[in-house]
Amino acid sequence: MNLHFADYLVIFIYFVFVVAVGVIIKKKITSSNDFLNSNKSIPLWITSLAFISANLGAQEVLGMVASGAKYGIMTVHFYWVGAIFAMVFLGVFMMPFYYGSKARSVPEYLFLRFDEKTRALNALTFAAMTIFSSGISLYALAKLLEVILHWNFDLCIWIAAGIVMAYTLLGGLTSAVYNEVLQFFLIVLGLSPLVIVALQDAGGWDTIRTNLEPQLTHAWRYMGDADANPMGIHFMSLIFGLGFVMSFGYWCTDFLVVQRAMIAKNMSAAQRTPIIAAIPKMFMPLIVVLPGVIAIALTKSALDSGDYRIPTDATGGYDYTMTLPSLIAHYYPSGLLGVGITALIASFMSGMAGNVTAFNAVFTYDIYQAYFFKNKSDKHYLNVGKLVTLFGILFSIGTAYIAASFNNINDFLQLVFSFVNGPLFATFLLGMFWKRTTGHGAFWGLVAGTLAAAITHGLTIAEGKGGWISPMYPISSGMGQAFIVASFSWIANFFTTIAVSLVTKPKPDEELRGLVYSLTEKVYGTEKRWYLKPAPLGIILLVITILLNILFF
Amino acid sequence: MSEKLNQLSFIIGVFFILVALVLLIGYGTSSSLKHAINLYTGTAMMVFGLVMIKLKA
Question: Are B33 and A193 an interchain contact pair (Cβ–Cβ within 8 Å)?
C-alpha cells in the first residue's frame, strides 16, 4: 500500500488537530479535579459520544470486522445482546449511585460502599490492566503501520505515544474526551464509504444472503444447537455469559467507560450519557460488523463479484485481523486512503488515551492519595496526576515492547481481564441492591470469582487454549469458553459474597445512604419532558434492540 | 474567535472541512485522486463540517 501526498496531508491534519485540542484545553486546567475529572463540566452530547468512543479502540474496530468475517452476523450479539441492555441498566439504576455518592472513581465507590481492601484490589488490578491495554493498543498500531505501510515500528511507537502524551498531558481528561469525539466522527465518516462501495461490489445485502451459508446471515436461528453455528455457542450460554455477566461486568463497572458518564454536568446528564451512547452503539454493526460479512461474501468464490480476498496467514488460513486494512487498501483510492488510515490510527489512539486517563485518575486518587500522601495540596495532586500520565505513557511504551516479544500476550491479557472483570458485576449488584453485603463478603467474593475463572479455564480447552489443569471439557470456540469462564466466575463471586456477608458484620444504615438502593431517596430527575427522562428513553431503546434481534433472527 | 475555539463542534467542523478540501481539491487537480468516491466523500464531509460549525455559530 503506497500513500500519496494527499494521504499524508490528511494524517498530518489529524495529528495537528488532536494536539491543538490539548493546547486549547490547557488554559482551563487549574486543579487536579480539572485534569483528572474534567470538573464535571462536560456537556451531555460530548460525554455520550466519548462514552462510546472510549470503547471504540482498535481491538473493537479491527476485532469486530474480523469477527464479522469469521462468525458472520452473529457478531451483532456483542451489540444487541452484549451492550445495549447493560448501558440502559447503568444509566437507569447504577449512575445514581456512582454520581450521587460523589465518588471520583469506581474503586472509590467500592471504598465508600465496602472498605479499603476491596478498593485496593480493584484499583491495583484496574491500573495494571489499563497500562497493559494501552501498551497493546500502541503495539498493534505500530505493527499494523509496519505491515501495511512498511513504516518503521519503533518510530511509529514513539510518534503515536508522543502525540497521545502531548494532548493528555496538556489537557488531561477533557482533552482526551474531546479527541475521542473527534475520533468517533472520523471513524464513522471514514469507514462509511467503505461499507457502501463494498456492499455495492458484493451485489447488495440480498445477494450476500443468497450466496453465504445461512449460519452467517442469521443472528439467532442456529443457536439452539452449539454445533450448528460458527461461534459454537448455545443461546443460553450467550445470554448468561455475554448478555449478563460479561456485558454488565464491562459496561457497568469498568471505570474506563463509567468515567465518561461521571464527568457529566449533573445527575440527569450522567444518567442519560450511557443511554444516549446506546443509540450510535446500536447501529455500530453497520460500520464494524457488516464490512466483515461483506468481506467473507466477496471472498467466497461463488460470488465472483470482484478480485477482493481476505488475506491469508502463514498456515494458509484466513487472516481475519487484516480484513479491515485489506478492504481499505482494496477499495480506497489516494485521498480517501489517507482518511481510512487516519480512522484506524484514531481508533488506536482513542483506545490508548482512554486507558491512560482512566489509569491516572485511579492511580492518583485510589493508590497515591489513598495510601501514600493523604493530605497534600490540590496543586500537589495536579502535578502528581501529570507525572502519572507521563509515566503511564512510558509504561505503555514498555508494555508495547513486551507485547512485541510475546505473540500471545494479548490473548493472555484478555484472559486475565475476563478473570478480573467477569466476577466484578456480582460485587456491584449485591453492593448496590442488598444492604447486608459486607466489605469482607465483597473482597472474598472477588477473590473466589477470580479463582473460579482460573479453575474453569484450566479444566476447559478450546482452540488449543486452556486446559492447563486438565483438558476435561472441550469447547468448540474460544469465545464460547470465555462466556463459560465468565459465568462460573460470576456465580462463584455471587454466592461467596452472600455466604461471607451473612457471617460478617454489615455497615450501619446511616453509612450506606446514597450507596445502596433501599437506603437512597429516589430522585426521578428534574426533567419534565418524558423524552429527557432515562427510564422512558431506555425502554424505547430496549424495544428497538429487540426488534433488531427479531429482524436479523 | 477564541470563544469558538473552545467549542468542540467548531473544532470538529473545521477539521472535516479541511479534510474535505484535501479530497475535493485533489479530485479536481490530481489524476491519482480523480475518483468519484473522493468527490462524494469530500462533499459529505464538507456538508458535515459546515453543519457542525453552524450548530454553535
Answer: no
